[in-house]
User: Fold this.
Amino acid sequence: DIQMTQTPSSMPASLGERVTISCRVSQGISNYLNWYQQKPDGTIKPLIYYTSNLQSGVPSRFSGSGSGTDYSLTISSLEPEDFAMYYCQQYDSSWTFGGGTKLELK
Amino acid sequence: EVQLQQSGPEVGRPGSSVKISCKASGYTFTDYVMNWVKQSPGQGLEWIGWIDPEYGSTDYAEKFKKKATLTADTSSSTAYIQLSSLTSEDTATYFCARYTTDYYYFDYWGQGVMVTVSS
Assistant:
C-alpha cells in the first residue's frame, strides 16, 4: 500500500502570509494527487486535483505543484476563511489520504 | 446544483448494524461512482470503498471488506452504507463523495453522518 506523509501536522500563520503544505508519497503516483479543505463545521471541498488543477470556484490564491513522490499546496496570501484542515489524497488503484494539516491563526 | 444529502446521526449498540443514506440530486445518479469515507473523532480521512450505481459493482479497502456493505437504489438516486458488527472503533463520521473518473478525485461531498456506538 502507498503511504503518505503530510507535513506539517499543524501550522500557525498570520493573515496575508504565504504558506506551503507538503505531501510525500512512498512511490510515484503519476501526479494523481489531490487537495481538500475541511472547515470546522465538517464540510469538505476539493481545492486542487491532478497535482495542479484548480477546482472550479476555488480562489486563485490556492495552487498545487509537484511530481513523482513530492507534492505541495501553496496559499499565496491567507484570508480569514482559509484557517481550516487540509488533506492530500492520492490515487493508485485505490485512494489514500494524508494525515492532515491544521492551519491555525497565529 | 449537485447535492449529496446524508441522513441524520445514528446510535448503534455494540454488535448491531446501522445503515445510512446519501441522496443525490442535480445530476444523473448512474453516471458517477459514489465513494464512502470514514473520519474517526479527531482523526484524518480513510477511504472505505465505492459503488457504481449503474451496475451495482463495488470495491472496498481491505480493512472494510467485512465491515461495510455498499448499495444503491437508482429509483431514488440514493446510495447506502451498512456497517455491521458495530464496535467502538466504528464511532466516526461517514461521508459520501462523488467521484469523477477524469482525474480520480472526489468533486462533491455529503455533509457527513455521525455514527455513535454505545450500549
In short: The two ends of chain B are 40 Å apart (CA to CA). The interface with chain A takes residues 35, 37, 44-47, 59, 61, 93, 95, 97, 103-107, 109, 111-112 of chain B (CB under 8 Å). The mean pLDDT of chain B is 96.
